Amino acid sequence: MNRFVIAEPQNCIGCRTCEVACAMAHAAGQDAQPLNPENFKPRLTMVKNATVSTVVLCRHCEDAPCVNACPSGAIVYRNDSVQVLQERCVGCKSCMVACPYGAMQVVSVPAAPTGLLKSRTTRAQALKCDLCDGRAEGPACIGACPTHALHMVDHDQMEATLKKRQQAVLDTANIQL
Amino acid sequence: MKKVISVCPYCGSGCKLNLLVENGKIVGAEGANGVTNQGELCLKGYYGWDFLNDTKLLTPRLKQPMIRRERGGEFEAVSWDEAISYASTRLKEIKAKYGPNAIMHTGSSRGTGNESNYIAQKFARAAIGTNNIDCCARVCHGPSVAGLMATLGNGAMSNSICEIEDTSCILVFGYNAADSHPIVARRILAAKKKGAKIIVCDPRYIETARIADLHLQLKNGSNMALVNAFANVLINEGLYNKEFTENYSEGFEEYKAMVAKYTPEYTAEITGLAPELVREAIRMYAAAPTATILWGMGVTQWGQAVDVVKGLSSLATITGNLARPNVGVGPVRGQNNVQGACDMGALPNTLPGYYDVTDDEARARFAKAWGVPSLPAEKGYSLTEVPHLIHEGKVKAYYIFGEDPLQTEPDLGMMRKEFEKLDLIIVQDIFMTKTAMMADVILPATSWGEHENVFSSADRGFQRCYKAIEAPGDVKDDWEIHSLMATAMGYPMHYNNAQEIWDELRGLCHLYTGATYEKMADLGYIQWPCLTEEDPGTPWLYEGNKFDTKNGKAKLFAAEWRAPLEKVDEAYPLGLCTVREVGHYSCRSMTGNCTALQTLADEPGFVQIHPDDAKKFGIKDQALVWVSSRRGKVITRANHNDRVNAGAVYMTYQWWIGACNELTVDHLDPISKTPEYKYCAVKVEDIADQKWAENYVRETYSKMKADMRKAALS
User: Fold this and answer.
1) Residue A30: pLDDT over 90
2) Rounded to two decimals, what is the model's pTM?
3) Which helix (H) or strand (E) holds B187?
4) Which H/E stretch holds residue B703?
């Protein structure tokens, strides 16, 4: 089963600490001042409506619409998750259209000058939660959330939750209709 | 990499953090296991430190003393000797010509610390000889200090931030914890999980309303009516604690008579609330074995603010929700050290330790310790009275320390006009600000992180910050600058370090005597009163039901409801309320220079408007719009927002382009002199040419930033 990060809306206070933590964890360089409006691209989004505040991000679907939609094989299953191979992304936005959670963003980023004229060029990236792949401490958003509203769900945790809910049925065993 | 213990320089939650330092530069921050934050931080704590690297995103750091010899002229970089000599000579001339009361001072409720506030007020009182010193408590929790001082004898939170999660009922009144204090919001969530009932009184559906048992969406400007109705129900239904009220409070009969007419039926029209909802709410509060009231700017930034604070204090008193753990009254302080600036006497009516300036014994004791024949006995001027006092010719010089009144005070157009009439403006700060741009003398100081100091968190907790890095440029600690100024004025002051100042303070104020630097070392947390070195401090006040009033009894108080000053009408049909935004702090000179926070939210900010009003006035979501009042006109971006009430609009106060204080009204609470930031009449207008508007915002913003950069680097 793929792992994913989920938000508990009842604990979310809409403070956007997770968005900044995400943008920081993914900003190039990791030096003291990595962020600017150009590279500020959190892969999760805090959303609010009249009564709910929560965070939306990639569910790492088992049969992922984005993987199926990508014409260039840039989105792959790896390490119990869905990952984007940015070097293959052509920026066609099929994944954005396909994602039912609105968790995918296709953006243009400056690329290193190439060719004889060394002209400035841009390239596309399909950005979504990568579970902070390669970050020893795990997803940055989970660690930063001051109200512990974000959790990693993996196979074992899902099993434990199912067990707990199935056990809860026992409490209703004496219900008669 | 070295870890240096500090306290977050933003809100009053008092979060301990470690600054991560590499090669003399801060490279990160992590939560430390402080008493209030338990290892957690919000976005400002995690990402609010890189202004120290002088990012110049918004404004440049001040790195050298500067003088402007003529109004409207260029700044000239000078040596410290010259800056101090110039500033002190001009101050001396003004003092000689007009007397000490022609000079106004501010303390600083921000990153500078308690020691420097103590020195700033000592400078005003001993070196200049005036009580004209105030801090931005005036524009935030001044009414809480004044109200609670009168009713309970202590102006601070009665109980601790940690206790919030163990109370069984929280009455949240005009307080948006999620945006103002995320780390306090955690405690409210925790209380809910432990089974507490939550009641929210707020015109907006704030985050806490989402977890509330009851949300009383009262009309803007009806606070006093609702608080009176609460009292009315408590008394009429016999829900109050008769034993506690009789033994430990006074004034019940007058109180009862005053609230008699405020039945929930009578107040329904004023508050817009169904009588049954009001009854249910206060019954819930009264039924709880322990209950806590938390309030914020929604109570204090009104023309009728002190009265409401006293009213809330009386609700806690007559239900016996004081003088024990997990209960109490909680004005949660907004700025990280606004509690501290008040503790240190950066107020026109109290010496350090809250001794009244009219207290002869205290004044004589301070005068002796400070080596002056006497100290002034008459109350000084309030911050918010300054523009009027300039107009009347009573204030001629303004020594502004770590504040930006030309961004944060109401009716900025009027403020600027009056500021121009001052003979001398001295600004002591770390950044070029809108106020510093008008200064005659700029004295650059070290920042939080570059000096050691003690802060007071919102619940009276003293905590130490250690120095993490060296300051850039030719700057000095705030207390040293004031000491140099005092010495040049003929009152020699000299300290070797912050601890010497702290120890002088402890020796003078019985409330703080036991709070030693040693006890506050590392993660140490000492809540005053702390009377002796053995005393661990006081998490909750009034033990033994003994209040800090003269006769030890709590005073009960209610007042007739007064409507807000301005009325909405056809020309200005919406009520503007100014609010906070989680990623920015105060005038934004610090957070606006932090890459992450500035990137998250930048000019021109938003006006939050209910979709029904938006439709009525033809306002598109995310479009740039004009917002205007009888005093000014600004551009901001519309935000259709289902969580705000129709009839009112909301703007955050830190923007330069979308500067809501160009619109607000200079109407003050008669006692605390706090402005009515929460209500003025405005209109919101669509702008047909959005391209022009976007361009206007970009160009105006760029020019303001460029002007500041040019001025600071003269």
Assistant:
1) no
2) 0.94
3) helix B182-193
4) helix B690-712
